[in-house]
Write a structure and sequence with these properties.
The chain is built from 14 helices and 18 strands. Helix content is 31%, strand content 24%. It has helices at residues 33-48, 72-80, 96-108, 123-131, 158-162, 168-183, 187-206, 219-223, 257-263, 295-308, 325-335, 359-372, 411-416, 467-472; strands spanning 12-22, 59-63, 86-90, 114-122, 147-149, 231-233, 236-237, 247-256, 272-279, 317-319, 378-385, 390-397, 406-409, 427-439, 447-454, 459-464, 482-487, 489-492. The relative contact order is 0.17. It is globular and about 70 Å long. α1 packs across α2, α6 (168-183) packs across α11 and α10 (295-308) crosses α11. By secondary structure, it is of the alpha/beta class. The strands form four sheets. It has a six-stranded mixed beta sheet with strand order 1-8-4-2-3-5. Strands 10-11-12-9-13 form a five-stranded mixed beta sheet, sandwiched between helices.
């Protein structure tokens, strides 16, 4: 890549980033998510050179958070004097990177000259209100977004819902077990690796001025369950998991080089999107023939790197989506990234903060700051939707490439490389454990959950609350173990 390259004036550039964090104990005094979004947008404008950089924005996209607004982009548009902007609301299940890729593509194609992608969640405000026995208030909106984006399919299989699975951690920890077995790791060795990986994340977060939790935590504190760090879904304790109880917002202002020049935005502010790649092929966890594999990450990752003529080792800054450890492990493996290098620039979702359906925006803001500061010339940010269901990457640089911005959807190729299994409602007979976890819920007995391959080649989900079996499954590997299924219950063979 050459800094002397003269790119097309339609080349998109990231020119303004703004983040906003609040930690207000009194929920009645805390700002609601809409106000956090507007504040982060204003900061993005200031970062680009002033409020005038926002006034003519043509498209504003917002990923849905845990709020009830019908058209947050419309209110943001009115607040910055961009009343004619197209407003977009993306539901959960739409990749956050897709919004950035869409904005860049529209700019590169000459459809628009500027766009904002902004999101926020206020989980800490929700938590404080719940502790007070109340619900945090939100303003009401009567209008609707111009564009509503929805995933094409459901994220969970009906059999998973019938099994009582509602939270992602159950299925992520099952994928983690399959990953561990694939790597031939013992339970103890695997837990040590996870603890060490998360300790390093906490160290990076401690140096990140925007991180929610800026305290280094030892591998043993992360690995071992305690009163403040309970086991949630073996092998995951609370500190392995994204911290959604945060109030954070992020905004990114994108425009064409032509627009940046017209607005007088300093060249030092420009960060070039080289590629945005994604796979939207959707297969529920229990139907995946290979629980540990993630072909969409491999294909989308390679497509992003190929667009810039780079290999994984040449990427200087990396941010792998870190809702749960296996998301980092699987993406790193598929990309060929060494586990010895840092795989986050923020400190990851357990420590930097994991605002619901907004983290990629926060991470991209941090990536842009570091690239501008000269900490690296290239940065790769990954995105996940669902239970490793969809995969995406954004590749950023301090300089353009000859072929300009590239967008690529690898969904069709991912589908060809993603064999599935038929999932049965119930099954009676022999089966082999493909993946499992033990769920620990406050006030309830620990329960083991398995995804198993039946003797007829189908898939089934089953539970056990047998204390002896539950204990065994946390002390020795059960992937590959023969079990007996009796409807929704399983026992040792």
């Amino acid at each position: 890549m050459s800094s002397t390259l003269q790119p097309d004036l339609r080349q998109p550039v990231l020119v303004g980033v703004g983040t906003c964090t609040q930690r207000e104990e009194d929920f009645a005094l805390a700002r609601e998510p809409m106000d956090l979004m507007i504040e982060s947008v204003r900061r993005a404008g200031e970062d680009a050179g002033g409020a005038h950089t926002l006034a003519g924005v043509e498209r504003i996209a917002v990923p849905k958070g845990r709020w009830r607004y019908r058209n947050p982009a419309g209110e943001i548009a009115r607040s910055i004097g961009a009343d004619t902007a197209i407003s977009v609301l993306a539901s959960v299940g739409v990749l956050q990177q897709s919004l950035l890729g869409d904005a860049c593509s529209r700019i590169a194609n000459g459809e628009i000259d500027s766009a904002l992608v902004v999101g926020a969640d206020a989980g800490y405000r929700i938590l404080r209100a719940k502790a007070a026995g109340q619900r945090a208030p939100e303003r009401q909106q009567d209008d609707a977004a111009d564009v509503n984006l929805e995933p094409e399919e459901e994220l969970l299989h009906p059999a998973e819902l019938r099994a009582g699975i509602r939270m992602p951690i159950a299925l992520y920890s099952i994928i983690e077990s399959a990953w561990r077995a694939r790597q031939g790791l013992s339970l103890d060795a695997h837990r040590e690796i996870l603890g060490t990986m998360l300790q390093r994340c906490s160290e990076i977060a401690a140096e990140n001025p925007r991180a929610w939790r800026r305290k280094t935590v030892s591998a043993s504190e992360i690995r071992e369950a305690s009163e403040r760090n309970p086991m949630l879904a073996f092998p995951y304790t609370r500190l392995h998991c994204a911290n959604w109880n945060v109030d954070q917002a992020g905004a990114l202002l994108l425009c064409s080089i032509r627009k940046a020049q017209q607005l007088g935005i300093a060249r030092a502010k420009w960060v070039f999107p080289l590629a945005s790649t994604e796979s939207n092929h959707m297969v529920p966890v229990s139907a995946r023939a290979d629980l540990a594999g993630c072909p969409g990450a491999r294909l989308a990752g390679r497509a992003a790197l190929d667009a810039a003529g780079l290999n994984a080792a040449q990427i200087e800054l990396t941010e792998l989506y870190s809702c749960f450890p296996v998301a980092v492990e699987a993406y790193a493996y598929e990309l060929g990234l060494s586990s010895a290098r840092d795989l986050t620039v923020t400190g990851g979702m357990p420590f930097a903060g994991g605002p619901f359906n907004n983290y990629v925006l926060q991470a991209t803001c941090r990536m842009a700051e570091l690239i501008r500061a000269g900490n690296g010339r290239t940065g790769l940010v990954s995105s996940v939707s669902g239970i490793l269901t969809k995969q995406a990457f954004g590749l950023w640089s301090n300089a353009p490439v000859p072929n300009g911005f590239t967008f690529q959807d690898v969904s069709a190729e991912t589908a060809r490389l993603s064999p599935t299994r038929h999932v049965v409602d119930t099954f009676h007979g022999g089966a082999t454990v493909a993946g499992y976890t033990v769920l620990h819920e406050k006030g309830k007995a620990a329960r083991a959950l398995v995804v198993a391959d039946t003797e007829h080649g189908a898939r089934a989900l089953a539970w056990s609350e047998n204390p002896g079996l539950v204990q065994q499954m946390q002390t020795r590997e059960f992937c590959g173990t023969k079990i007996d299924l009796r409807g929704e219950v399983f026992s040792a063979a």
